[in-house]
Protein backbone atom coordinates (compact mmCIF):
# COMPACT_ATOMS: atom_id res chain seq x y z
CA UNK A 1 0.00 0.00 0.00
CA UNK A 2 1.22 3.52 -0.82
CA UNK A 3 2.81 5.42 2.09
CA UNK A 4 3.52 9.06 2.89
CA UNK A 5 7.17 8.31 2.08
CA UNK A 6 6.16 7.23 -1.44
CA UNK A 7 4.22 10.47 -1.95
CA UNK A 8 7.13 12.56 -0.67
CA UNK A 9 9.58 10.80 -2.99
CA UNK A 10 7.31 11.25 -6.02
CA UNK A 11 6.85 14.98 -5.39
CA UNK A 12 10.35 15.70 -4.10
CA UNK A 13 9.38 17.09 -0.71
CA UNK A 14 9.74 15.94 2.89
CA UNK A 15 7.43 13.46 4.59
CA UNK A 16 6.55 16.22 7.06
CA UNK A 17 5.29 18.43 4.23
CA UNK A 18 3.14 15.64 2.82
CA UNK A 19 1.75 14.85 6.29
CA UNK A 20 0.92 18.52 6.90
CA UNK A 21 -1.01 18.72 3.62
CA UNK A 22 -2.92 15.50 4.33
CA UNK A 23 -3.90 16.71 7.81
CA UNK A 24 -4.84 20.21 6.67
CA UNK A 25 -1.81 21.94 8.22
CA UNK A 26 -0.64 23.47 4.94
CA UNK A 27 -0.39 27.16 5.87
CA UNK A 28 3.31 27.29 5.02
CA UNK A 29 3.10 25.13 1.91
CA UNK A 30 2.75 26.77 -1.50
CA UNK A 31 -0.41 26.24 -3.54
CA UNK A 32 1.68 24.66 -6.29
CA UNK A 33 3.19 22.11 -3.91
CA UNK A 34 -0.22 21.31 -2.43
CA UNK A 35 -1.55 20.63 -5.93
CA UNK A 36 1.40 18.37 -6.74
CA UNK A 37 0.98 16.43 -3.51
CA UNK A 38 -2.76 15.95 -4.08
CA UNK A 39 -2.10 14.86 -7.65
CA UNK A 40 0.43 12.27 -6.43
CA UNK A 41 -2.05 11.07 -3.82
CA UNK A 42 -4.64 10.48 -6.54
CA UNK A 43 -2.22 8.82 -8.95
CA UNK A 44 -0.64 6.51 -6.37
CA UNK A 45 -3.91 5.70 -4.57
CA UNK A 46 -2.80 6.71 -1.10
CA UNK A 47 -5.18 5.86 1.79
CA UNK A 48 -4.55 7.47 5.19
CA UNK A 49 -3.72 5.12 8.06
CA UNK A 50 -6.65 5.81 10.33
CA UNK A 51 -4.99 4.26 13.37
CA UNK A 52 -1.99 6.56 13.00
CA UNK A 53 -4.21 9.58 12.47
CA UNK A 54 -6.18 8.83 15.64
CA UNK A 55 -2.95 8.88 17.64
CA UNK A 56 -2.38 12.44 16.45
CA UNK A 57 -5.89 13.84 16.45
CA UNK A 58 -7.61 11.46 18.92
CA UNK A 59 -10.79 9.58 18.10
CA UNK A 60 -13.24 11.51 15.96
CA UNK A 61 -16.20 9.54 17.37
CA UNK A 62 -17.61 9.56 13.81
CA UNK A 63 -18.71 6.31 12.18
CA UNK A 64 -19.45 6.08 8.47
CA UNK A 65 -22.32 4.12 6.93
CA UNK A 66 -21.29 3.53 3.33
CA UNK A 67 -23.82 2.27 0.81
CA UNK A 68 -22.38 0.58 -2.26
CA UNK A 69 -25.92 0.05 -3.57
CA UNK A 70 -26.32 2.44 -6.49
CA UNK A 71 -29.77 2.46 -8.15
CA UNK A 72 -29.80 3.66 -11.74
CA UNK A 73 -32.41 6.27 -10.82
CA UNK A 74 -29.98 7.86 -8.30
CA UNK A 75 -32.44 7.60 -5.41
CA UNK A 76 -30.96 7.78 -1.92
CA UNK A 77 -30.71 4.66 0.23
CA UNK A 78 -32.84 6.37 2.90
CA UNK A 79 -35.80 6.54 0.50
CA UNK A 80 -36.20 2.78 1.04
CA UNK A 81 -38.19 2.39 4.29
CA UNK A 82 -36.31 -0.78 5.23
CA UNK A 83 -32.90 0.88 4.98
CA UNK A 84 -34.24 3.90 6.86
CA UNK A 85 -35.29 1.58 9.70
CA UNK A 86 -31.96 -0.15 10.15
CA UNK A 87 -29.91 3.03 9.62
CA UNK A 88 -32.09 4.68 12.27
CA UNK A 89 -31.26 1.81 14.62
CA UNK A 90 -27.55 2.24 13.89
CA UNK A 91 -27.77 5.96 14.65
CA UNK A 92 -29.62 5.42 17.95
CA UNK A 93 -27.20 2.74 19.13
CA UNK A 94 -24.16 4.79 18.12
CA UNK A 95 -25.57 7.83 19.91
CA UNK A 96 -26.13 5.80 23.08
CA UNK A 97 -22.45 4.88 22.95
CA UNK A 98 -21.16 8.41 22.31
CA UNK A 99 -20.61 8.14 18.55
CA UNK A 100 -21.93 10.08 15.56
CA UNK A 101 -23.12 8.75 12.22
CA UNK A 102 -22.15 9.90 8.73
CA UNK A 103 -24.05 8.46 5.74
CA UNK A 104 -22.52 8.27 2.28
CA UNK A 105 -23.09 6.45 -1.02
CA UNK A 106 -19.96 5.54 -2.98
CA UNK A 107 -19.72 3.69 -6.28
CA UNK A 108 -15.96 3.41 -6.83
CA UNK A 109 -12.73 2.98 -4.92
CA UNK A 110 -11.69 6.50 -5.94
CA UNK A 111 -14.83 7.94 -4.33
CA UNK A 112 -14.09 5.98 -1.16
CA UNK A 113 -10.51 7.23 -1.22
CA UNK A 114 -11.73 10.82 -1.44
CA UNK A 115 -14.10 10.24 1.47
CA UNK A 116 -11.39 8.72 3.69
CA UNK A 117 -8.98 11.48 2.78
CA UNK A 118 -11.38 14.16 3.93
CA UNK A 119 -12.95 12.54 6.98
CA UNK A 120 -11.22 10.93 9.94
CA UNK A 121 -13.84 8.28 10.73
CA UNK A 122 -13.24 5.75 13.48
CA UNK A 123 -14.98 2.87 11.69
CA UNK A 124 -17.19 1.95 8.76
CA UNK A 125 -20.36 0.01 7.99
CA UNK A 126 -20.82 -1.18 4.40
CA UNK A 127 -23.96 -2.41 2.64
CA UNK A 128 -24.18 -3.86 -0.86
CA UNK A 129 -20.64 -5.24 -1.11
CA UNK A 130 -19.86 -8.03 -3.58
CA UNK A 131 -16.81 -10.13 -4.44
CA UNK A 132 -15.14 -7.62 -6.73
CA UNK A 133 -12.36 -5.03 -6.97
CA UNK A 134 -14.15 -2.72 -4.51
CA UNK A 135 -14.20 -5.43 -1.85
CA UNK A 136 -10.54 -6.27 -2.44
CA UNK A 137 -9.75 -2.62 -1.79
CA UNK A 138 -11.67 -2.77 1.52
CA UNK A 139 -9.53 -5.69 2.67
CA UNK A 140 -6.46 -3.41 2.48
CA UNK A 141 -7.89 -0.66 4.69
CA UNK A 142 -6.54 -0.24 8.19
CA UNK A 143 -9.87 0.60 9.82
CA UNK A 144 -12.60 -1.43 11.63
CA UNK A 145 -15.29 -2.57 9.16
CA UNK A 146 -18.65 -4.29 9.63
CA UNK A 147 -20.44 -5.65 6.56
CA UNK A 148 -24.24 -5.67 6.46
CA UNK A 149 -26.18 -7.92 4.06
CA UNK A 150 -23.04 -8.89 2.14
CA UNK A 151 -22.00 -12.38 1.06
CA UNK A 152 -18.25 -11.78 1.15
CA UNK A 153 -15.81 -12.70 3.88
CA UNK A 154 -12.60 -11.40 5.42
CA UNK A 155 -11.02 -12.42 8.72
CA UNK A 156 -10.63 -8.79 9.85
CA UNK A 157 -14.27 -7.83 9.27
CA UNK A 158 -17.52 -8.70 11.02
CA UNK A 159 -20.83 -9.42 9.26
CA UNK A 160 -24.52 -9.16 10.05
CA UNK A 161 -26.79 -10.93 7.60
CA UNK A 162 -30.11 -12.69 7.17
CA UNK A 163 -31.58 -16.04 6.14
CA UNK A 164 -32.15 -14.66 2.65
CA UNK A 165 -32.24 -18.04 0.91
CA UNK A 166 -34.72 -19.39 3.45
CA UNK A 167 -36.82 -16.23 3.10
CA UNK A 168 -37.12 -16.64 -0.67
CA UNK A 169 -37.92 -20.31 -0.24
CA UNK A 170 -40.51 -19.68 2.49
CA UNK A 171 -42.34 -16.99 0.53
CA UNK A 172 -42.57 -19.14 -2.60
CA UNK A 173 -43.49 -22.26 -0.69
CA UNK A 174 -46.33 -20.37 1.00
CA UNK A 175 -47.75 -19.38 -2.39
CA UNK A 176 -47.46 -22.97 -3.65
CA UNK A 177 -49.24 -24.28 -0.55
CA UNK A 178 -52.09 -21.89 -1.38
CA UNK A 179 -52.52 -23.48 -4.79
CA UNK A 180 -50.43 -21.14 -6.93
CA UNK A 181 -48.41 -22.70 -9.74
CA UNK A 182 -47.53 -19.70 -11.93
CA UNK A 183 -45.50 -17.46 -9.64
CA UNK A 184 -43.59 -14.39 -10.81
CA UNK A 185 -40.36 -13.22 -9.18
CA UNK A 186 -39.87 -9.43 -8.91
CA UNK A 187 -36.69 -7.84 -7.56
CA UNK A 188 -33.98 -5.25 -8.04
CA UNK A 189 -31.21 -6.33 -10.45
CA UNK A 190 -29.84 -9.75 -9.46
CA UNK A 191 -26.10 -9.88 -8.79
CA UNK A 192 -24.27 -13.12 -8.10
CA UNK A 193 -23.75 -13.88 -4.40
CA UNK A 194 -25.87 -10.97 -3.29
CA UNK A 195 -28.96 -10.72 -1.09
CA UNK A 196 -31.36 -10.74 -4.03
CA UNK A 197 -29.55 -13.68 -5.63
CA UNK A 198 -29.94 -15.72 -2.44
CA UNK A 199 -33.69 -15.00 -2.33
CA UNK A 200 -33.89 -15.90 -6.02
CA UNK A 201 -32.22 -19.25 -5.38
CA UNK A 202 -34.70 -19.93 -2.58
CA UNK A 203 -37.57 -19.13 -4.98
CA UNK A 204 -36.21 -21.59 -7.56
CA UNK A 205 -35.66 -24.29 -4.95
CA UNK A 206 -39.28 -24.11 -3.80
CA UNK A 207 -40.45 -24.43 -7.39
CA UNK A 208 -38.19 -27.43 -7.97
CA UNK A 209 -39.36 -29.23 -4.82
CA UNK A 210 -42.97 -28.81 -5.99
CA UNK A 211 -42.03 -30.13 -9.48
CA UNK A 212 -42.92 -26.75 -10.98
CA UNK A 213 -40.86 -25.52 -13.94
CA UNK A 214 -38.70 -22.43 -13.56
CA UNK A 215 -39.89 -19.92 -16.15
CA UNK A 216 -37.39 -17.12 -16.94
CA UNK A 217 -40.16 -15.07 -18.54
CA UNK A 218 -41.70 -14.66 -15.07
CA UNK A 219 -38.57 -13.01 -13.62
CA UNK A 220 -38.78 -9.21 -13.51
CA UNK A 221 -35.74 -7.15 -12.48
CA UNK A 222 -36.63 -3.52 -11.77
CA UNK A 223 -35.52 -0.58 -9.64
CA UNK A 224 -37.44 0.16 -6.43
CA UNK A 225 -38.75 3.68 -7.12
CA UNK A 226 -42.50 4.22 -6.96
CA UNK A 227 -43.02 4.93 -10.66
CA UNK A 228 -41.14 1.82 -11.77
CA UNK A 229 -42.86 -0.56 -9.34
CA UNK A 230 -46.34 0.72 -10.23
CA UNK A 231 -45.50 0.33 -13.92
CA UNK A 232 -44.46 -3.26 -13.24
CA UNK A 233 -47.78 -3.90 -11.51
CA UNK A 234 -49.59 -2.54 -14.56
CA UNK A 235 -47.52 -4.84 -16.78
CA UNK A 236 -48.25 -7.89 -14.64
CA UNK A 237 -51.98 -7.13 -14.60
CA UNK A 238 -52.06 -7.51 -18.39
CA UNK A 239 -50.65 -11.02 -18.29
CA UNK A 240 -52.78 -14.13 -18.03
CA UNK A 241 -49.95 -16.57 -17.31
CA UNK A 242 -49.49 -15.91 -13.58
CA UNK A 243 -51.58 -15.92 -10.40
CA UNK A 244 -49.06 -14.69 -7.83
CA UNK A 245 -45.97 -12.51 -7.38
CA UNK A 246 -43.11 -12.80 -4.91
CA UNK A 247 -41.42 -9.40 -4.56
CA UNK A 248 -38.09 -9.33 -2.72
CA UNK A 249 -38.86 -5.98 -1.05
CA UNK A 250 -42.09 -4.70 0.49
CA UNK A 251 -41.72 -1.32 -1.19
CA UNK A 252 -41.75 -3.12 -4.54
CA UNK A 253 -44.66 -5.35 -3.52
CA UNK A 254 -46.82 -2.38 -2.53
CA UNK A 255 -46.03 -0.61 -5.81
CA UNK A 256 -46.95 -3.74 -7.74
CA UNK A 257 -50.25 -3.99 -5.87
CA UNK A 258 -51.01 -0.36 -6.71
CA UNK A 259 -50.30 -0.96 -10.41
CA UNK A 260 -52.48 -4.09 -10.46
CA UNK A 261 -55.36 -2.27 -8.81
CA UNK A 262 -55.03 0.80 -11.03
CA UNK A 263 -55.39 -1.56 -13.99
CA UNK A 264 -58.79 -2.69 -12.75
CA UNK A 265 -57.74 -6.00 -11.23
CA UNK A 266 -57.95 -7.01 -7.59
CA UNK A 267 -55.40 -8.20 -5.04
CA UNK A 268 -55.60 -10.99 -4.02
CA UNK A 269 -58.65 -12.14 -5.96
CA UNK A 270 -56.96 -11.84 -9.38
CA UNK A 271 -53.27 -11.77 -8.43
CA UNK A 272 -51.76 -12.60 -5.05
CA UNK A 273 -48.68 -10.71 -3.80
CA UNK A 274 -46.15 -11.52 -1.07
CA UNK A 275 -43.31 -9.23 -0.02
CA UNK A 276 -40.12 -9.25 2.03
CA UNK A 277 -38.95 -7.12 5.02
CA UNK A 278 -42.20 -6.44 6.96
CA UNK A 279 -41.88 -2.65 7.00
CA UNK A 280 -44.66 -0.58 8.61
CA UNK A 281 -46.18 0.13 5.20
CA UNK A 282 -47.35 -3.51 5.04
CA UNK A 283 -50.02 -2.77 7.64
CA UNK A 284 -51.18 0.39 5.86
CA UNK A 285 -51.54 -1.01 2.34
CA UNK A 286 -54.85 -2.26 1.03
CA UNK A 287 -54.98 -5.18 1.29
CA UNK A 288 -52.49 -5.55 4.12
CA UNK A 289 -49.37 -7.22 2.75
CA UNK A 290 -48.37 -10.77 3.57
CA UNK A 291 -44.58 -10.76 3.83
CA UNK A 292 -41.35 -12.22 5.18
CA UNK A 293 -40.30 -10.50 8.40
CA UNK A 294 -36.78 -9.45 9.28
CA UNK A 295 -35.79 -7.45 12.36
CA UNK A 296 -34.23 -4.27 10.93
CA UNK A 297 -33.68 -2.53 14.31
CA UNK A 298 -31.92 -5.61 15.70
CA UNK A 299 -29.74 -5.81 12.60
CA UNK A 300 -28.57 -2.24 13.14
CA UNK A 301 -28.01 -2.75 16.88
CA UNK A 302 -25.91 -5.88 16.39
CA UNK A 303 -23.84 -4.19 13.68
CA UNK A 304 -22.95 -1.37 16.09
CA UNK A 305 -22.08 -3.81 18.86
CA UNK A 306 -19.70 -5.58 16.47
CA UNK A 307 -18.03 -2.31 15.50
CA UNK A 308 -17.59 -1.16 19.10
CA UNK A 309 -15.95 -4.51 19.91
CA UNK A 310 -13.56 -3.95 17.00
CA UNK A 311 -12.80 -0.39 18.10
CA UNK A 312 -12.14 -1.48 21.68
CA UNK A 313 -10.16 -4.57 20.65
CA UNK A 314 -12.55 -6.81 22.54
CA UNK A 315 -12.35 -10.55 21.83
CA UNK A 316 -14.93 -11.62 19.24
CA UNK A 317 -15.72 -15.33 19.25
CA UNK A 318 -18.00 -15.32 16.19
CA UNK A 319 -17.59 -12.60 13.56
CA UNK A 320 -20.79 -13.42 11.67
CA UNK A 321 -24.42 -13.24 12.81
CA UNK A 322 -27.25 -14.50 10.61
CA UNK A 323 -30.67 -13.29 11.74
CA UNK A 324 -33.80 -15.43 11.30
CA UNK A 325 -36.81 -14.75 9.10
CA UNK A 326 -40.45 -15.59 9.66
CA UNK A 327 -43.63 -15.47 7.62
CA UNK A 328 -46.25 -12.84 8.51
CA UNK A 329 -49.69 -13.70 7.12
CA UNK A 330 -52.03 -10.84 6.26
CA UNK A 331 -54.50 -10.34 3.41
CA UNK A 332 -52.67 -10.19 0.07
CA UNK A 333 -52.56 -13.90 -0.80
CA UNK A 334 -55.62 -15.77 -2.06
CA UNK A 335 -56.01 -19.53 -1.71
CA UNK A 336 -56.59 -21.45 -4.95
CA UNK A 337 -56.29 -24.86 -3.28
Fill in the keyword field for this structure.
single chain; 337 residues; alpha/beta; 434 Repressor (Amino-terminal Domain); Rossmann fold; 6-stranded parallel sheet; 6-stranded mixed sheet; 12 helices; 12 strands; 42% helix; 16% strand; elongated
Account of the 3D structure:
With 337 residues, the protein is of the alpha/beta class. Among the domains are: 1-46, lambda repressor-like DNA-binding domains (434 Repressor (Amino-terminal Domain)), CATH 1.10.260.40; 164-293, 3-Layer(aba) Sandwich (Rossmann fold). It contains 12 helices and 12 strands. It has a 6-stranded parallel beta sheet with strand order 2-1-3-4-5-11, with helices on one face. Helix 1 (4-11) packs across helix 3. 40% of the residues are buried.
How would you summarize what this structure contains?
The chain has 337 residues and is an alpha/beta fold. The chain is 42% helix and 16% strand. Strand 8 (244-247), helix 11 and strand 9 form a beta-alpha-beta unit.
Amino acid sequence: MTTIKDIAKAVGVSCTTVSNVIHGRSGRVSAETIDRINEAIDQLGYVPNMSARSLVSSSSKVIGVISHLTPHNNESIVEDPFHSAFIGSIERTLSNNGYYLMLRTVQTTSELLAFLRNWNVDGLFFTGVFEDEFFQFLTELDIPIVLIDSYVSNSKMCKVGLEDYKGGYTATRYLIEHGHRDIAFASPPIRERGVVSERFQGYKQALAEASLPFRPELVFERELDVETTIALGTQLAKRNDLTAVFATADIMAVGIMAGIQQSGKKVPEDISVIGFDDINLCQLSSPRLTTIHQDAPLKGKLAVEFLIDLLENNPIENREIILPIRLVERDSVNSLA
